[in-house]
């Protein structure tokens, strides 16, 4: 590549003249191109797909809708629009139906489009039609038996049906196709943790290695350590999380929980809960656990104040309400 670039550069010099040669312009990023050419359908599609990668589904939807309005026959524009529509957290049943219609259009035009086949299968899974979901997923695998996302969808369907073994098998097959597939490690880790299998820890460790800055992966790992009484490892992982994101409060709360319920160090527990509440006053579990600490000390009035704080931020937090009733009866 370097040799070809050098030859090309010499050609430019010889054609333009050694003294008057223009410096090669920097290639514009897709964000810059999007600002410069806001009505270019190919750029709208590229920008929209970039927004999908960034999980910014609202912007992706805007790009997809605009590209689709401009070129309704364009399967890439339709696919982007439908994909963004169906991935939004606040999608409605009518959104799913609309997306399904667009995916069908794409599949009809391009029957071997594995991404569209799996996307179409996803809409049926969302509607509870697992038979059609499996049909289109298997169609994608007939086109490409190593298509990772098809196995992920099968795993999710099996999990919804309560078939953990087939779910685990599907997620593991997805990893076999793509050893760096972060989401599959998280899903398998969560399944094994729910089954009380410490193998979950290794899956979460791998997830943190794939995405070292992903707080979700670190939190799952730390909580798994805590869940299996590997407390020093849990505490160290929570500390690492706070270095990565000092404003993320769950690590502070969990360190308080460990101090309170596992190490019987109430002073340290109070410290961590107060640190939690300084950053997030609505953390009702921290208020409640402070109440428990003061109730244990026999300081009922102080305990009730903390329980009331929990109820202030969440009136439906019944365990604090029950604690107040319990203490009120013993006065």
From TrEMBL:
PROSITE patterns: PROKAR_LIPOPROTEIN, TPR, TPR_REGION. SMART domains: TPR (SM00028). It comes from the Bacteria. The keyword Acetylation does not apply. Keywords: TPR repeat. The keyword RNA-binding does not apply. Coiled coil: none annotated. This is Tetratricopeptide repeat protein.
């Amino acid at each position: 590549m370097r040799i070809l670039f050098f030859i090309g550069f010499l050609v430019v010099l010889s054609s333009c003249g050694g003294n008057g040669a223009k410096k090669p312009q920097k290639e514009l990023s897709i964000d810059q191109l999007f600002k410069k050419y806001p009505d270019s359908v190919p750029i709208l599609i590229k920008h929209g797909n970039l927004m999908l990668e960034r999980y910014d589904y609202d912007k992706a939807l805007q790009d997809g809708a605009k590209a689709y309005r401009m070129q309704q026959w364009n399967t890439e524009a339709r696919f982007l629009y439908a994909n963004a529509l169906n991935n939004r957290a606040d999608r409605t049943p009518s959104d799913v139906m609309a997306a399904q219609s667009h995916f069908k259009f794409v599949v009809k035009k391009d029957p071997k489009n594995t991404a569209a086949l799996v996307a179409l299968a996803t809409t049926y899974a969302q509607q509870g039609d697992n038979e059609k979901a499996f049909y289109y997923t298997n169609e994608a695998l007939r086109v490409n038996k190593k298509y990772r996302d098809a196995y992920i969808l099968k795993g999710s369907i099996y999990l919804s049906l309560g078939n953990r073994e087939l779910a685990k098998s599907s997620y593991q097959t997805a990893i076999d196709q793509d050893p760096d597939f972060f989401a599959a490690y998280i899903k398998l880790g969560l399944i094994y943790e729910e089954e009380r299998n410490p193998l979950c820890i290794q899956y979460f460790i791998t997830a943190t290695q794939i995405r070292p800055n992903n707080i979700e992966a670190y939190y799952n790992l730390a909580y798994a350590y805590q869940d299996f009484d590997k407390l020093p490892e849990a505490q160290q992982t929570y500390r690492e999380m706070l270095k990565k994101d000092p404003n993320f409060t769950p690590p502070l709360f969990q360190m308080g929980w460990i101090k309170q319920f596992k190490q019987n160090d109430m002073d340290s527990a109070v410290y961590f809960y107060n640190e939690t509440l300084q950053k997030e006053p609505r953390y009702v579990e921290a208020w409640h656990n402070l109440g428990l600490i003061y109730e244990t000390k026999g300081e009922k009035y102080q305990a009730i104040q903390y329980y009331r704080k929990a109820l202030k931020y969440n009136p439906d937090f019944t365990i604090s309400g029950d604690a107040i009733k319990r203490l009120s009866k013993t006065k």
